[in-house]
Amino acid sequence: MAIFVGGYTNLLLMKLYAFIAAFAVFAGIHAQDKMPYKLFDKYGTATSYKKLVKAATATDVVLFGEHHDNSVVHWLELELTKDLAEKKDLVLGAEMIEADNQKELDQYLKGEISQTAFDSTARLWNNYKTDYKPLVDFAKGKHFDFIATNVPRRYASKVYKGGFESLDGLSAEEKKWIAPLPIAYDAALPGYVKMLEMSGGHGGDNLPKAQALKDATMAYFIAQHLKPDIVFVHYNGTYHSENFEGINWYLKKAKPGIKIVSIATVSQKDIDKPEKEYLNLADFILVVDEDVTKTY
Fold first, then answer.
1. What are the tens digits of pLDDT across the range 101-147?
2. Which contacts qualify for 73-78: CB closer than 8 Å, 24 or more apart?
3. Alpha-carbon span 265 to 273, nearest angstrom
4. Which is nearest to 102 in space by CA: 224, 184, 211, 216?
5. Of 39, 112, 275, 294, which has the maximum CB count within 10 A?
6. Each residue of 260-270: b (16+ CB within 10 Å) or e?
7. pTM of model > 0.70
8. What is the distance between the alpha carbons of residues 195 and 186, in angstroms, rounded to a whole number?
9. Would you give the DSSP letter of residue 170?
10. Which ranges in 123-232 belong to alpha helices (H)?
């Protein structure tokens, strides 16, 4: 009997050791998992990509705030767009193409001009081919509208040098490419205050005004292309929509009942939780590993 009990005890011990060893292996593998990003809600609580898709499907506008040089962010922009397109018709738009290049963009989307011709006639960013062309080509393949929302940079430059009043002398044709004048502006908005502080006063009050012109113009062209039961997905630098300001603020002034889902991108060494300063930046906070490959 003692032999049986001892054998039974040994068997239990062997099973226990096997379980511990297996758990240790699992824990070791889990600890070594490398994730390039994690998603959180505005309070810093971990959330899922599935919840992001669900929220984006039920809104009017998605403001995807990006870091322009981040390869993971550009990948996720495309993946989110593809997944949303499985559920809803979309209109796409981007800061990275200026409003007075809409004609050339439309020609490319319709197949009337080649990529080479588009490259030569539109003022495309240097990283267009790697980071934004996949989005434009997706719109082309799905026959979705793609809206060039940003103000032509020459007008932002005018405001930086001479304030909003410098826009008064524009021709009627030129005013088609900017938000209607006069531009609403609240200098007390934290984002504009922070921009002025970060610049050390360089550019004076005209620096945040130039930013406001971009925000107002992007919001204006988004609002002009809203359609019932269609989601407008807009790609912009994260600073243009953080803290529910910028584009967000102007959209809500133009369309008080509009539903917006915003995404803010931050970069950290530890992606397990957003740093305190990043809370409440947006509805979803995309925390990306700071070592992620940059596209330029």
1. 999 999 999 999 999 999 999 999 999 999 999 999 999 999 999 99
2. 73/265, 73/286, 73/288, 74/130, 74/131, 74/132, 74/134, 74/295, 76/37, 76/286, 77/135, 77/235, 78/134, 78/135, 78/138
3. 13
4. 224
5. 39
6. bbbbbbbbeee
7. yes
8. 13
9. -
10. 133-142, 153-162, 190-198, 206-224
